[in-house]
Amino acid sequence: MQAKNRVCLGLVAGWLAATLLGCDSAAPTPAGVPATLTAQAADNATAVVAQQLALTYVAATNATATVALTDFARLKPLIQVTLQPGPPVLLAGIQRTGLTVTVANRDQAAHHVVIRLYDRQAPLNTEGYSIAALDVPAGGSASTPANSARPFAVLAAQVQQIDALQDYRPPVP
Prior knowledge:
Blueprint: H1 2-21, H2 37-75, E1 79-85, E2 89-91, E3 94-105, E4 111-119, E5 130-136, E6 141-148, E7 155-162, E8 165-166
Antiparallel strand pairs: 1-3, 2-3, 3-6, 4-5, 4-7, 7-8
Helix pairs in contact: 1-2
């Protein structure tokens, strides 16, 4: 499959280079004189190949995205996140809310989990986001310290990534 993709990619790259550089193997035709049938057939064949390659690329991209969303949806219920308040943290002279993020993994495989901490009252305000990442063993749990500019009472957590699977949806209140 990879060899086929390389061949297709090479064909597209060659076609794009020829198109962008204005290379044309046929002799230019005077204005008003139709191109030869051979040149027209070659142009049509090139267009068909390019269209098929583009459709194949789009289909492969969509299939990959669908599989990733399905895998993330399957794993997310197996990951449980809890937040515990901690002592305040002083960073660059600014006091921030300290907390501990604990992730429990009920899956039979270990995972690298990225958690987004956000303000529940303003979930789309990116200034309130903090990130915590940790490796969680299979059937176990792990904790990591974190901090936020928001008070602990308004913080919520969203599983943003499990291994290489991303959740691109915004957090919800």
